[in-house]
Specification:
The complex is a heterodimer of chains A (about 260) and B (about 80).
Chain A lengths: L4 E3 L2 E3 L3 E4 L6 H11 L3 E8 L20 E4 L7 H13 L5 E4 L12 H13 L3 E6 L3 H10 L5 E2 L13 H10 L5 E3 L5 H10 L3 E4 L1 H4 L4 H21 L20
Chain B lengths: L1 E2 L5 E2 L1 E6 L2 E6 L4 H7 L8 E4 L2 E3 L14 E9 L2
Parallel strand pairs in B: 3-7
Antiparallel strand pairs in B: 1-2, 3-4, 5-6, 5-7
The chains are: A alpha/beta (about 260), B mainly beta (about 80).
């Protein structure tokens, strides 16, 4: 069955996008990503430690020819910083796709929506393929789609919280109205959360902490791959409606009396 | 200005790299500085006085007293 996540004209077989933060070392990062089956991986842009430049580089472990590198703007609290970070990332030569996140508050890490909209406008105009991290708000999703973002990425719950999808109804409304892929970004805690996102009809799931901070990140990476695959298949297969009373699975005819 | 052990004057200049003041040899190009710092150009992006420098211009970008550099790379993130 051919079933792809289409982003900016590229077909991805995996609907799981994974982050590269919080792993114990680059070797573990690499292995977890391999086991997750992800083809798109997020990275952050940070200053080089000039007093110790000999450290290994993340890209020594993640071949940009094999993976789509998706730089984020994590840590940016205004549109200017986010745009600046995206421009720096683009110069690294890994493409024009960026995960736009403009943080509004460091306790919740919820996005600053006005600043996200402002940055998205500039970035789209500059030719970036913009994937914005947003709250699960259908109006914001619509506005970003209208601006020209290549996808919208509503959170399931606060970043790193592991609470799972807090408002599946909002996600459903976003899905109903969107003409671009909807990717649940942040807040997933375990494989069933990822499966639920896919069962709702989301086009993808993005996560980092749920894998990297699991007791066994490699096993969780595999579980997340399977959760996303199972959820997607269940969505495509079409679940039965929920009913209050039983429906027998075995025929009533031919019972031995 | 600094005096080397043979008594010659080696001129130096101060620039700011990633928020830190640093004394470097005068007349260095960006490529020369990265080499001195042992930073692989292929793995970094450089902003020189708030303008991004494309990699093929590192050799011809000359640094001057008071310049500000941001040298960034990709790290793990979500």
């Amino acid at each position: 069955m051919d079933d792809f996540l289409q982003l900016a004209g590229i077909n991805y077989r995996s609907r799981l996008i994974v982050g590269t933060g919080k792993y114990k070392d680059f070797a573990e990062t690499k292995r977890a990503i391999e086991l997750s089956g992800a083809e798109i991986v997020t990275v952050a842009v940070r200053r080089v430690n000039i007093t110790d430049p000999h450290k290994e580089n993340l890209l020594d472990y993640l071949d940009p020819k094999k993976y789509t590198i998706l730089p984020n703007t994590a840590g940016c609290y205004n549109a200017d910083d986010a745009v600046r970070t995206c421009r720096l990332a683009r110069e690294a030569g890994v493409g024009k796709m960026v995960k736009l996140e403009v943080i509004g508050d460091d306790r919740t890490l919820f996005p600053d929506i006005p600043a996200t909209l402002e940055a998205a406008k500039i970035l789209v105009k500059e030719g970036f393929i913009v994937l914005p991290y947003i709250t699960d708000d259908p109006i914001t999703a619509q506005k970003l789609q209208d601006i020209g973002c290549a996808a919208v990425m509503p959170l399931a719950a606060p970043i790193g919280s592991g609470l799972g999808i807090r408002n599946p109804y909002n996600i459903r409304i976003i899905l109903e109205q969107s003409t671009v892929p909807v990717i649940v970004d942040a807040g997933v805690g375990t494989a069933s959360d990822a499966a639920l996102a896919m069962e709702l009809g989301c086009h993808g799931v993005l996560m980092n902490t749920a894998i990297a901070s699991a007791k066994d990140p490699l096993l969780m990476a595999e579980a997340m791959r399977q959760g996303v695959e199972a959820g997607r298949k269940a969505f495509l297969a079409g679940r039965i409606p929920k009913k209050l009373y039983a429906t027998a699975s075995s025929p009533l005819d031919g019972l031995v009396n | 200005m600094a005096v080397c052990e043979y008594g010659f004057f080696i001129s130096s200049m101060n620039i700011k790299i990633n928020g830190e003041e640093k004394e470097i040899t005068s007349g260095l190009s960006l490529a020369g500085l990265l080499e001195e710092l042992q930073i692989r150009p292929a793995r970094v992006v450089v902003e020189h006085n708030r303008s991004i420098v494309s990699r093929d211009l590192y050799g011809t970008t000359m640094l001057a007293e008071g310049d500000t550099l941001e040298i960034v790379h990709f790290v793990g993130g979500g």
